[in-house]
Amino acid sequence: GQQVMQIPQYQHVQEGEDFTTYCNSSTTLSNIQWYKQRPGGHPVFLIQLVKSGEVKKQKRLTFQFGEAKKNSSLHITATQTTDVGTYFCAGPPLDTGNQFYFGTGTSLTVIP
Amino acid sequence: EPEVTQTPSHQVTQMGQEVILRCVPISNHLYFYWYRQILGQKVEFLVSFYNNEISEKSEIFDDQFSVERPDGSNFTLKIRSTKLEDSAMYFCAAGEQDRYEQYFGPGTRLTVT
Questions:
Q1: Cα–Cα distances in Å, from A34 out to A6, A82, A91, B15?
Q2: A84 CB contacts (<8 Å, ≥6 apart)?
Q3: How many CB atoms neighbour CB A21 within 10 A?
Q4: Does B55 map to a domain?
Q5: Rounded Cα–Cα distance for residues B47 and A13 (Å)
């Protein structure tokens, strides 16, 4: 079945260090979305990428969608304590309806 | 950010009982979803709903589950004959377009004892 894996599962960084999480899908995705979930909270939409090879930036966050539309990455430059949370990628497979598969998530801890 | 609301925030039920989880999506959104998240794990898709009918469902969404939009605003998830393993956070989400960004509600924590 469809699997969306993320690595690493956990990441601890010193405040000011960079952070990257990688997302890999077993099948081609129609689009990739990224969500952030704070501890005890709900997923909050960050961004969506649709085109093969697309790169988008939001302030210190850079998102990439792979050429084959099966992988993606999120890079945070100079992390801050407000970046703490779990980052999930998610997307619908290209060949099905609107099921959404979430990745396994990367939990980020930022040490002040 | 537009707001999706869910009630109750926490539901405790005994094994074998039925529960109904309620969601009020954003008024101009047409696509609705239910997800489940077991503590510490990933978010799992259960079902999507559009135009008053189910459009997709996962293998988790078996005959134990059903969804309704009874009055044009509320969106409900019914779980019949609850089991211990149904204990999880259940999130409702809504979107304006098919397979595009979704707004999640705060969730209902279901505890089955």
A1: 12, 17, 9, 35
A2: A38, A39, A108, A109, A110
A3: 24
A4: yes
A5: 36
Q: Is the pLDDT of residue A1 over 80?
A: no
Q: Which of A86, A99, A101, A106 to mutate to test the interface with B (most CBs of B within 10 A)?
A: A99
Where in the sequence is the domain holding B46, given as residue range(s)? 9-112
Q: H/E element holding A28?
A: none
Domains of chain A and any CATH numbers = 4-111 (2.60.40.10)
Place of tokens 């099948």: A27
By the CB < 8 Å criterion, does A7 face chain B?
no
In chain B, how many domains are there? 1
d(CA B66, CA B108): 16
Report the gap between the CA of A90 and the closest CA in chain B (Å): 9
- B43 to A48: CB separation less than 8 angstroms, yes or no: no
Residue A100: which of B1, B45, B103 has the nearest Cβ? B45
**For residue B72, pLDDT beyond 80:** no
Cα–Cα distances in angstroms (integers) from residue A110 to residues A37, A51, A82, B62, B103, in the given order: 15, 31, 8, 40, 26
Quick: pLDDT tens for A18-47: 999 999 999 999 999 999 999 999 999 999
